[in-house]
Write the structure tokens for this entry.
Amino acid sequence: MNHPLPEVCDGILLKQEAIESRVRELGESLVRDHTGHDLRLITVLRGGLFFLSDLCRATDMPVSLDFMAVSAYGPAASGSVRITKDLDDSIEGASVVVVEDIIDTGLTLHYVLEVLRRRGPASLEVCTLMDKGVRRIVDLPITYQGFRVPDRFLVGYGLDLDGMYRNLPYVATLRDEVMS
Ligand code: IMP
Ligand code: MG
């Protein structure tokens, strides 16, 4: 499979092979830390789906999956988030790992964690493939992190620009001209 770099991008930040090998390591870490526990991997649709799909297959132990969807409302960066699709299963007593594609300001995830914490999981952790640390507004407990990434707009492996490019098997940087 050969997805040529889209015109709107100026380079590849994370190659497919680099993502694959990091995802394998993260899966091994999940097994090491959660063997014998009721492990639930939860992701926030839609971007995290690609990472979740690869991560759960790299996690060689019984695990169940569940999904949420949220949409931001109100002024940008106000952190106001509404749940548009909730989990199907109770997480009471479960070892929950929230799986994210990328964390930027952290506001979305902060809200999701608040909601989940009130439901009484045995543990609540975060596994993110990418972390744009510099723009973080709220402090988040990130247990598993794939890559630290620069403050550029990224597409691919779940990340989109207006709904497009999620299916690229690599992560690419958008040209600055495209953003403005
Ligand atoms: P936060 O609430 O600012 O942490 O936003 C995180 C969400 O913003 C991610 O789950 C992505 O959906 C989206 N996002 C953040 N950075 C990028 C990017 O570089 N490209 C595409 N989507 C992004
Ligand atoms: Mg997301």
